[in-house]
Amino acid sequence: MAVLSYPISGSTLKLTRVYLIILYMHTCETQRYSEKHERDPVSAIKPDHPASLRKHFSSVRRLTGTLASRLSVEDQSVQSMPDASPTKWHLAHTTWFFETFILKPFVPGYEVVDEQYDYLFNSYYNSIGEQYPRARRGMITRPGMDHILEYRHAVDDAMGDFLNASPDGLPEEISALIALGLNHEQQHQELLLTDIKHGLSVNPAFPAFEPRGSVSGWGGSELEMIGYHGGLVHVGYRGEGFCFDNELPEHKCYVYPFNLASRLVSNGEYQQFVADGGYRQPGHWLSDGWSWVQAADVSMPLYWHEIDGQLLEFTLHGLKPLKPAVPVCHVNYFEACAYASWAGKRLPTEQEWEIASRSVQLEGDFMNFDQLHPRAAKARGGLQQMFGDVWQWTQSAYNGYPGFKVAEGAVGEYNGKFMCGQQVLRGASCVTSPGHARHSYRNFFPPGAQWQFSGIRLAQDAK
Amino acid sequence: MAVLSYPISGSTLKLTRVYLIILYMHTCETQRYSEKHERDPVSAIKPDHPASLRKHFSSVRRLTGTLASRLSVEDQSVQSMPDASPTKWHLAHTTWFFETFILKPFVPGYEVVDEQYDYLFNSYYNSIGEQYPRARRGMITRPGMDHILEYRHAVDDAMGDFLNASPDGLPEEISALIALGLNHEQQHQELLLTDIKHGLSVNPAFPAFEPRGSVSGWGGSELEMIGYHGGLVHVGYRGEGFCFDNELPEHKCYVYPFNLASRLVSNGEYQQFVADGGYRQPGHWLSDGWSWVQAADVSMPLYWHEIDGQLLEFTLHGLKPLKPAVPVCHVNYFEACAYASWAGKRLPTEQEWEIASRSVQLEGDFMNFDQLHPRAAKARGGLQQMFGDVWQWTQSAYNGYPGFKVAEGAVGEYNGKFMCGQQVLRGASCVTSPGHARHSYRNFFPPGAQWQFSGIRLAQDAK
Amino acid sequence: MAVLSYPISGSTLKLTRVYLIILYMHTCETQRYSEKHERDPVSAIKPDHPASLRKHFSSVRRLTGTLASRLSVEDQSVQSMPDASPTKWHLAHTTWFFETFILKPFVPGYEVVDEQYDYLFNSYYNSIGEQYPRARRGMITRPGMDHILEYRHAVDDAMGDFLNASPDGLPEEISALIALGLNHEQQHQELLLTDIKHGLSVNPAFPAFEPRGSVSGWGGSELEMIGYHGGLVHVGYRGEGFCFDNELPEHKCYVYPFNLASRLVSNGEYQQFVADGGYRQPGHWLSDGWSWVQAADVSMPLYWHEIDGQLLEFTLHGLKPLKPAVPVCHVNYFEACAYASWAGKRLPTEQEWEIASRSVQLEGDFMNFDQLHPRAAKARGGLQQMFGDVWQWTQSAYNGYPGFKVAEGAVGEYNGKFMCGQQVLRGASCVTSPGHARHSYRNFFPPGAQWQFSGIRLAQDAK
Amino acid sequence: MAVLSYPISGSTLKLTRVYLIILYMHTCETQRYSEKHERDPVSAIKPDHPASLRKHFSSVRRLTGTLASRLSVEDQSVQSMPDASPTKWHLAHTTWFFETFILKPFVPGYEVVDEQYDYLFNSYYNSIGEQYPRARRGMITRPGMDHILEYRHAVDDAMGDFLNASPDGLPEEISALIALGLNHEQQHQELLLTDIKHGLSVNPAFPAFEPRGSVSGWGGSELEMIGYHGGLVHVGYRGEGFCFDNELPEHKCYVYPFNLASRLVSNGEYQQFVADGGYRQPGHWLSDGWSWVQAADVSMPLYWHEIDGQLLEFTLHGLKPLKPAVPVCHVNYFEACAYASWAGKRLPTEQEWEIASRSVQLEGDFMNFDQLHPRAAKARGGLQQMFGDVWQWTQSAYNGYPGFKVAEGAVGEYNGKFMCGQQVLRGASCVTSPGHARHSYRNFFPPGAQWQFSGIRLAQDAK
């Protein structure tokens, strides 16, 4: 019997009975984890169920509209940095995706809404054609919001007709593309929120995206280092639902025994790092990280503000007092590594994260207008905060899995061409759309990126 | 009898009878030119007439609103380059000017509309306080258009009350400040149009500010070089109306005999320069100009487009065929100098321009929604196109006149601190507000600026 | 019996008898490869043999001096880009290394040659103190060459005394540091050559480092894809000689069956990629790579020149006709990936490269003044050109091996802090110092780096 | 009788008898000043005297060699910023000037020393051909110093033969070009010193160009404001010696009465400005100046260093304590204007400076290895320090005089194409070559330039 990966006695004695059960699950002979959560009809998009596809299409598209509708026209137009995009552009680009990859090739006689949208709303698909410069998306004042919304309605109508015309299901190739389009739109829902958070943050009035929400800071728990055996494990997506190509193929890899922190690093812990001169000592920093700290004169995470001696944090609910039990957020890879070094630990690899994550359900506080911010850990032992608070930086550079193949055509540009100079983040955040997360999900951003809801989970080699 | 400045026989024999009369006027003993045009009650702001001030206040403020109202909220929010500002910002900044320099100091108990506006809408008055970074004005999504318009109304109401409370006139200090505020707002009316022209120009659809307008290209005339005697002349504003401090003091200077072109350089003439390799030969360019041509890979004026072999020009009425008789526009100082060198001529000094300009009335095609573009010269001899088509680059660097004093306080920052690295432009353009021009008016921009309605009038030393 | 890694029938039938013997070696039960080559007394530095250390110390230090002596004082002073350093600086920095890490801590009463050298010649050891800005090293005209050579002699003398004073060997800690210093100096010998190659390349006269050398382009062979089994293999250094900390610890990892190209990609093959529009089609490029191609307007490798219709290559022997059979060189990771995509292959992982490399001896054309350039492949089958022609880009991002620990103190800054944003290169080049290579050696550079002798070896998944 | 310009009773009563005599001279009817000093055979180059030309040729060329010979090869190779050039380049470029403008066109059969020198050592003459990028001149390690010196000797020999072949004088066109070449070389002598000063300044050891020299700080005098009448004056060169084209034509201009400071602003006075928060208050700065202060985080002049609480100044004799009576030096136009504003004064126009300067002899402490630094004012009244300490910023933008014509051909690029974006400096500095100054001399640099020996002389309108 080859045990692949399960919690062993780590640096903590607090393992609860819940864990023992999970432990048992992970020692079963299948050597594979339960896929149950991914079959949940509520959350995940199933390309092969026509009704599911229709239902998801309308709910995903509606959510994007709801997000945008909470913003003024000015808010929706702003691009506060080259990496961010205006809300307007997100609305149009996600629509363009369906028009370009479904309606144009598969609906005979379909007439595009506007020839110029190919140039304006193509993000990075060179196979489709040239694109308006990314850093200048905020310059496009026309088409205005009214035309963008008309565009959405026109494409939604055409997609509805198309989906309804095949009540027994579409060819797999097409339904997979639609599922890709919906997952793609969910990614843009999260980006819409992170981008507008940045857009609002440059306003000295610190306006709120959702003034009625709040940041709950109650709770917290001791940080335990939970042990896992590792071994020759399988990593990557296995199941029948949707996944991105970068989660494939499922493959074997060898993982040494390791410990993973039971919860995320909190604001309070990170404050100690700051207070200990963390941003003034090169010793804990990667070389590129230290260059960044010096060049940008950084002394605390993005969105932290010290005003009149008080530490505040800009959130989607406005400027709020920094709560110690809430996970630290909006740190980049450099900051995450420096903190880990200071704490005498390291970041996990993505393989470690993935095999450990299988011991918990795919549950968490996903996008919810009442609290668009990570929450304090619960006052209990065991692995928590894996999904729905912050994306967690791993020490793994983003690359293709063994056997990874870039798809033919424009869709092949979705993931593969970004496999250089980026780090993998795992989990999901408080602004990830419900139903979008997976244990095998691989998010990725350059090491300097701060504007995502990215935080820190510690790991270490098992002794 | 000291002759100051009048047309002499230049390189042309076409002097008409009209000129002979003007000639006479300029040889009169007063050595000063008629100020009649500046006393025209329709056009110029008279700080010392209470009714005039009230009337001008409401008409100038109304015109700004009219300009903005032709744009969508998105259009009004965009900042397409650091030198340009969003329409929204122009609306707010001109309002802030009256609030800051009139209402706050002179209206007892006046409560500011929003404390933060000082930071957001102060342009460059360091004496007032720090400013939101100029290049980031487009990032301010809130206050939204609705609040900006409320701000305008609140300040207009308070100003109305203030003006009405003194039916017999305000102290000179205050009325002069109000006149300054109105002239300041007129400057921003022109900037609003040049800035939105640039904002729309970066859109591949080339949308029009005013689709119903047109570009008239009929007419044209031979370019004559009209002679002027020069001598020990007076330059600078003399009169009783409003002028900016940089037009003062009126002073003596010695001007050698010169010739000035009867009209502006036309698109057709400039096209010959382009066709002759003007942008590929360093010989005609200033050193900085040639560096600019190479670094920016320039081959024609801003807003010219060669599409399918046809030359087009982007205008506030959309993309239009380039008309040969229309004055060339949106050239910078480098281009103006290079053209003049190629043409075997030079640019005038601002003194030459000013003394020659006195031979013509202060008339021209100022801002007019039917044609927001310069017009072809009229088919007649004599000096024309001095006002109302394009600003005309002079070879004079912008500096203070002899005896120029920077005013005390924040208003002293209006002009003086820009007296370095800029060139003087004279005249007025087709988007200059009616009543804003003067013979002595000194506009100024850095030599690389292209986005203003700036063109070329040639000069040469008299033989 | 667990076979780890050996050639299997790949896409070629040309496996020679030589391979079968090697194949046998690799199926032996030890599951480890022969370390014989690393025991060769001629080549590798053995910290634990006092005589070896003394001998290596003097030969390594002498070689650096020989390299520099072929250059004029001006050549030795130039820094042609921020990533390169002047020869002078290499001479001083490698000396500073011994002074700082051996003489100062371990020789009682040692007096430093110049207090300021710590600031001037410390490369990046923040634990030691601040450093003169890297990009400005070429600005330091004093100390001059005479003082730098005196510095070298003084430190060599003190090191000689120190080594001779312990004829029976130094404590392991110290001898390991000396071995590190010598390997460090060998790395700088290669950098000295790549840096001066760049320095000379910016001169329009294309001067030669060594005019008498030549570029041999005879030979060449068919490119075969040789198969390897993979499996659960060991990777990393195992042996008793010197290695860098980044080669440790030896560890297990799982490798899928793969094919590796028998030889490097040649100039002739790369020319076909160029001729096929390789630099004009985004489809084969990583996203960052395509941005680089466009921003830098790249159309061929660094040091290629098309002059009068002929393709030439700048080498350390001057400008030479490009020889088709010679390996392509000075390509960066983006170019290597794009070429591999165009060729329908991929780059190897560093694990694949390492386990395949064990089938060949640690032999090759290392630094040799007769030919400081890669050579054409030999006209035979089987794996060749693994060492001594060009470093070979792998698709592996540079990271710490499982269990990797950063050493305490300044020496800990040697490798660990660069583990972000760089790619691993394997093998060794024609300008690598003799005795410096290892099968487990991990070189690393950012993906955009071109100035190293870096080339391309293709791989693919086994079918 | 039209008085043009003479001292009137200003803010001082200390006018000495010497002044009264000069006063008389300036009230003579000729309305022109004595040109005697410019006829001095020791100092100025007379193109029309064959013997003078030969003598000057050899002495000017020799001085350049002497300057370079005091530097190591490394010193001569460094280019520490784009605006500076290596000594080596100055040596070659000044030689290229004679080869290109004299030997090639006028010596039949002359063979150029090296075809490539045209590309390497042409500074900015586009008519001659393309140039190696200015900012990269320090990258050219070959030709080495040995070849550069051979180049100088070869050209000197050829020029010697050419000059000797025409004992009765050369055609005026040629002798004028040789005089231009010699004055050009003198300009480069000064640049050589300012450039190497910058080159040495970036070395933390602050090495001296001439260790034996010293900075004399004795003396000093009260600053008086001396009055001048102004009027309709003549400005520009009048005489028979050499002058640059930008000093021509002599022309009339009207100058209002003004006062000019009797001496330069001293370090001690400038220190008060610094201590008073001069660099922290925007009120005294030009807009571009304040941007520069903030962007570059400036708090004192270039080359000032505060070390252990003591103010030091880097000089060509090394780092020296800042002496209060010595003129402040290495300030740019922004600093000069800000100081003047703080002091309640202004900078002079170049016309004011020129007409005032005629009251003093063309004498001063020109280039002298004993003190390559400005000296304290003498303890006497009257106008002093006009020549030989520091160049003095004027408020005049650099432009062509009325009637200025750019010469035909490459020589026409000497001055004219720089007439944009630069300010005129008047006088001469302590590193100006003897015999190079003139009352009408117009030096010019961009407003941000600090590395020249540039200082401040105050002026004000006469009351």
Textual characterization of the structure:
Helices cover 32% and strands 12% of the residues of chain A. Chain A has 463 residues and is an alpha+beta fold. At the A-B interface, helix 3 of A face helix 3 of B.
Provide keyphrases for this structure.
11 helices; 13 strands; 4-stranded antiparallel beta sheet; paralog of FGE (formylglycine-generating enzyme); alpha+beta; 463 residues; 2 domains; homotetramer; 4-stranded mixed beta sheet; 12% strand
SSE topology sketch:
The structure is a homotetramer.
Chain A lengths: L6 E2 L8 H10 L23 H20 L3 H5 L9 H20 L10 H5 L23 H20 L7 H30 L23 E4 L2 E5 L15 E5 L2 E4 L5 H9 L11 H10 L7 E4 L2 E6 L2 E4 L11 H10 L7 H8 L33 E7 L25 E5 L15 E3 L8 E2 L3 E3 L2
Parallel strand pairs in A: 9-12
Antiparallel strand pairs in A: 1-2, 2-5, 3-4, 5-13, 6-7, 7-8, 9-10, 10-11
Helix pairs in contact in A: 2-6, 2-7, 4-6, 4-7
